[in-house]
Specification:
Elements (H helix, E strand, L loop, with lengths): L1 E4 H5 L3 H12 L20 H26 L6 E4 L2 H5 L7 H13 L6 E4 L3 H7 L5 H13 L7 E4 L4 H25 L1
Parallel strand pairs: 1-2, 3-4
Helix pairs in contact: 6-7
Length: 187
């Protein structure tokens, strides 16, 4: 088994992006109710959207390379901590151009055999990890759940305990692996 972290192993120039993001976005005014929270993913200016769009395309091409390398490594199973889907939810899909761009990235990205979205209630997630404003967390959840419009093979695992989520994933993999093994034996 191999584990690939999207930000560390795939994202194009991730350290530079993180440094620039912190330097530039730290200067953005933060409403008092959001003081002390992160101020990066939730900033949606037109110029940042344009820069992000370029990086997301570069990330997608790099993802293709990383997936190809991992596949040639002879691993039975590869777990991605995040995937290109984490970038897609940053794109507001309200306009036809944004939706077309999301579809382009989805078509360019390698299709995983299994793609899980681990859902969480925003209030509970916020109490565990208070990085972003709660209203942002609600929007982020809606965006992730809305990804099925663009990526119908996404499997959403509902909010639950870590143990139960793990059991559901293993159950799903076990059931689908039997089907995949039987399909490949027939074909």
């Amino acid at each position: 088994m191999a584990r690939v972290s999207f930000w560390d192993d795939v994202a194009f120039m991730s350290k530079v992006r993180a440094g620039v993001s912190l330097a530039v976005l730290r200067k953005q005014p933060t409403p008092p109710k959001h003081a002390g929270l992160r101020n990066d993913k939730n900033v949606r200016t037109w110029y940042l959207t344009l820069v992000r769009a370029v990086f997301y395309l570069l990330d997608t091409f790099r993802l293709r390379t990383v997936v190809s390398q991992v596949r040639s490594g002879g691993h039975d199973f590869v777990v991605f901590d995040r995937y290109i889907y984490d970038q897609l939810v940053q794109i507001h899909s309200r306009s036809w151009l944004a939706r077309a761009y999301i579809r382009l990235l989805v078509s360019l990205a390698p299709k995983p055999e299994f793609a899980f979205v681990l859902d969480a209630f925003p209030d509970e997630a916020f109490t565990r990890k208070t990085e972003y404003p709660l209203d942002f967390m609600y929007g982020y959840r809606r965006a992730f759940l809305g990804l099925s419009t663009f990526v119908p093979q996404l499997i959403v695992i509902g909010p639950s305990t870590a143990d139960h989520v793990g059991q559901l994933i293993l159950q799903y993999l076990s059931e689908r692996s039997d089907v995949l093994v039987n399909d490949s034996a027939v074909g």
